[in-house]
Amino acid sequence: MHSAAPAKTTLFATYFALIALLALSAAAAKWQIGPLWNLFIALGIAAVKTALVFLVFMQLRYQRGLVRVFALAGFLWLAISGVLTFSDYLTRGWTP
Amino acid sequence: MNRPGIAAFFSSGASSVAPRVDALFWSLVLASAVVVAVLVLLNLTFLIRYRRGSPARRGPLEVSTWKFEATWIGLTTVGFLGFFFWGARVYLDMERVPADAYSINVVGRQWMWDIRHPNGRREFDELHVPLGRDVRLLLSSEDVIHSFFAPEFRVKQDAVPGKTVSVWFKPTREGVYPLYCTQYCGTKHSQMTGRIVVMSPDAYAAWLTCGPTPRIAERGRELFTKYSCSGCHDQPSQIHAPPLLNVYGSMVPLQDGTFVYAGDEYLRDSILLPTKQVVAGYQPIMPSFQGVVSESDLLDLIAYLKSLPTAASAAPQPSPAAP
Amino acid sequence: MNDALSHPAAPPYVDRDQHSVANHLGMWTFLATEILFFGGLFTGYTVLRWAHPHAFAEGSRHLEFWIGTANTAVLLTSSLFVALADLAIKRDDRRAARRHLVAAGLLGAAFLGLKGFEYFQKFQEHLVPGSGFDAHGAQPALQLFFFLYFLMTGLHALHMLFGLGAIGWLLRQIGRGAVSRERPDAVAIVGLYWHFVDCVWIFLYPLLYLIGG
Amino acid sequence: MSLLVESSKAPPRMPSYLEAGHTVRSWLFTLDHKRIGILYMAAITVFFSIAASAAALMRIELLTPAGDVVTSETYNRLFTMHGVLMVWFFLIPSIPSVLGNFIIPLMIGARDVAFPRLNLLSWYLFMAGGILATYSIVAGGVDTGWTFYTPYSSTYSNGHVMAMAAGVFIAGFSSIATGLNFIVTIHKLRAPGLTWTRLPLFLWSMYATSIILVLATPVLAITLVLMAMERLWGVGIFDPKLGGDPLLFQHLFWFYSHPAVYIMILPGMGVVSETLAAFARKPVFGYRVVAASSMAIAILGFLVWGHHMFVSSQSVYAGVVFSLLSFLVAVPSAIKVFSWTATLYRGHITFETPMLYALGFIGLFTVGGLTGIFLASLAVDVHVHDTYFVIAHFHYIMVGGMVMAYMGGLHYWWPKISGRLYHEWTARIAALITFIGFNLTFFPQFVLGYLGMPRRYHMYPEQFQTLNVLSTAGASILAVGYALPLFYLGWSFFFGRRAGPNPWGATGLEWKTASPAPEHNFETTPVVTTGAYAYDAEGNP
């Protein structure tokens, strides 16, 4: 499993992509298009950056299926916690 | 409360919802008893018949196991879903507060229940309610979480600091019933108990007027000045703040384009969390009174706001004596 | 424990490959727990921000945009160096591996330095939650923003400190030859941790610094 | 019994793990999973005894309606201590850390768990947490209840909340380390031929448990940090005065604590599957479905926490959703009960002590599970929530279920642990006493709850006294049932008849090696060629 590892050029390409995304993120924050849109853009860029780090730096794309499942499990469970918690908050004002 | 334990076990309760809860409860007991009986019978039969050395026939099973598995997965799922719908139906009715319910404020505090009736009459650890009326309790708490539990009414609701929660019931039998706090609230949790007295409407009306009744709306008006609410909200004012006449009971337009119904919860939120729902056309400049106004002052302030001419002036507080 | 002779790999393992796979799986499982550890905070943050959008926007404006941005760049660069160190050790270039790790460690320290500077600033501005907190006329939920700010960045900084410790340990192991081309796992494992802590910051940055709106 | 035959063809004895060293140091610095299991056993026995004493005092207090034995402050500290110690320092580590540690590597044919050092560290973390919790009790106690609800815990309580929370926090990392170890062990160290569909059901249930340990515990950790910070700092996100929300604490807390209930029952289900197969001498009915139901419980268990909050002023709609999901999580549990019953069909059943405990488990767990259905039904839950009905329900699951299973498992694997047999009839009688005492203690509490007696009440209205007296009487019988094994197991450890490798004639790799297990478990790595529970038509392995 060590044989397949990212090449140096891949690492640098990923790094420059990350820095570019950071610049984009910082610029987008200064460009006001409504708080919700800004938030979505900022979090979307963060998600792309994290995906890059996971796939290349953390070599997820070179790992076998099992490790990928474990890497995703954390996020899936985080989603469970967020979605079900918000099933309460978002419907609090509703009355039957 | 005064009845012996075993009789209470089969009582139908003292509120309109109690028989419905009991019907569900006893159906569950019956279904469970059947399941347990079948399982015990099967287990005992197998244990005796297939004890080691018994002459019973063994050998591999002739049928495939998955048919059995599928059958009981299907049956339990259907049975469970049935009980889910039943339970949810009754629950939704329990949560749907009737529009014309008679409102009483209940504040939980370590370790007592502080109760205010609409005319200002106040009592502690004892709640008098008229028979046959839909009674709505507006529960809040001054310190920790408490829980209002009236077992004979099959009603329970936590009183959470920082918000007001409604719970309602319709007493169907005169009498004296226990009231407990069921959310652990500190040292004297087990002494935070009281009584609920269900009286005939006439007796209740008489009871209401015989005690001391401070005019809480008047006190609320004084607080309105004391907390400098009037500086901004009384018209005319230098500061651009929404006027408060005709607010209670109306639909208030908000900055984000939605509307909110201005009930008790809205008034409370507007004082404590003013930027949560900003009225369209105004700036979120009002400071929060969270931690500044005590729970009891807050109730008086809300009482004052409700006493102002309202959008639905034609429908004032329902008079308590009406059935 | 002294009969390792009969087994070529460390005690419970049959061979090195099995050991290496187990190490990776173990680390990823640990990272899943870390996601949920920070996840509790993120859930709390989301609920409160939803309840108090104005206070949170106000709080975000009190933070130094440039420090947050610079720190993100610093961490991303350190991550690159950790990835390079992993590559180097697999190519049996221990000197380069150490050099890259030192660079990553220095960048990590720089991050903490900037963070410390920002903490100091907030302290001077009376924005540290507690009795000395000055809401600057904003609503009380501003204090909740700063409570979360300090807790989230503080826990992140604590993870950074552990990461620095791990890098120090790794440098020593490489120097002793205990980590080498034949046994390179430790670099990848520490690397996984370092990259993960980096990812936490990747989310903290927009959530804390970019929501001023 | 095939005892003599088995022992005569046993291989020449390697030194057992018990003989590998006799110094204190050889125990405290051991990396052997079996010894670590024993260390855990010693520790949880102590915590169980402390927590059980607290329960005994509470039951004595509740003999009379008045608060006449202890003060309210003391009573509140007693039930907090009982809850915290039982949940985090007995139930959660009981089967996983004691029996799991001991048996998992033996069952999969491995020399040890994947990370032996981490395993030892987890015991030390557990002890550190336990000592902090004990310190907070000795220093004056905590009166928040085991649930630590805010704002009571963060602002109003005057107990040693910080020390207690720190203790639980640290013990949580011990849980995580154990779960992580088991996951990797089961994935990576299985003997050749031991495929997932041949895995004994105990391993399936331990795997499912480990997933919960790993994914739920971190949320508890951060929740306790948030609560402690609020207490320390006076500022926090649960504080309504600043616009925080006390219910958020409950969401986060139950996100952990509801799955934690399954940490406390899934391993028990695994033990029961093992013992039933062993004493019915027959494969478990519907093996695949039973294995899958463990995983289903582990995953669905994360979706139902809101059923603890039906009356908390959580949204009505969230309540309905959580209720539906709670009904669904009951389905896999029901599958297990039916499958166990069907397992007995056409078996060759004998009634040794572990089997008695397993049968007791099935009965009590069924009652506990069915009353869980009551609590998932929204309208009924409103009435019985936070009353003795809930107490009875979860004690049927936790004590009737998990403690029964732990005792059953302990007796079942005792020959492997100690190399000796206990006195069978004494053990059977103890199991019977436990079963009777348990029912007498907790069944009256269902009635009390329906009648409206709230939980955590130091004093109570007079009409509840009869049932409380019954319950206390039952508790005294239960105490005898728990005390007996301490004596006869202790005696057997030194003087019991020697057990062969496989005294029960059971399948499973753990029975293929000597008793007590050799230091390195197996002389040669075993190879597996059949599924679990491969008994022939006569019930022989």
Features:
heterotetramer, B: alpha+beta, Helix Hairpins, Cytochrome Bc1 Complex, Chain D, domain 2, 3 domains, about 35% helix, about 20% strand, elongated, C: mainly alpha, Four Helix Bundle (Hemerythrin (Met), subunit A), 6 helices, disordered N terminus
Query: Into how many domains do the coordinates of chain D divide?
Result: 1
CATH architecture of chain D: Up-down Bundle
Low-confidence stretches of chain D: 1-9
- What's the total count of β strands of chain B? 12
Would you give the CATH topology of the largest domain in chain B?
Immunoglobulin-like
Could you name the CATH topology of chain D?
Answer: Cytochrome C Oxidase, Chain A
Rg of chain B is 27 Å
Measured by DSSP, the beta-strand proportion of chain D falls in under 5%
Estimated helix fraction of chain B: 25-40%
Helix and strand succession of chain B? HHHEEEEEEEEEEHHHEEHH
Share in β-strands of chain B: 15-25%
How far apart the termini of chain B lie comes to 25 Å
Number of strands of chain D: 2
CATH architecture of the largest domain in chain B: Sandwich
Largest sheet of chain B: 5 strands, mixed
The mean pLDDT of chain B is 84
Q: Write down the oligomeric state.
A: heterotetramer
Strand order, main sheet of chain D: write it out. Answer: 1-2
Low-pLDDT regions of chain B: 311-323
Structural class of chain B: alpha+beta
Q: For the record, what is the CATH homologous superfamily label of chain D?
A: Cytochrome c oxidase-like, subunit I domain
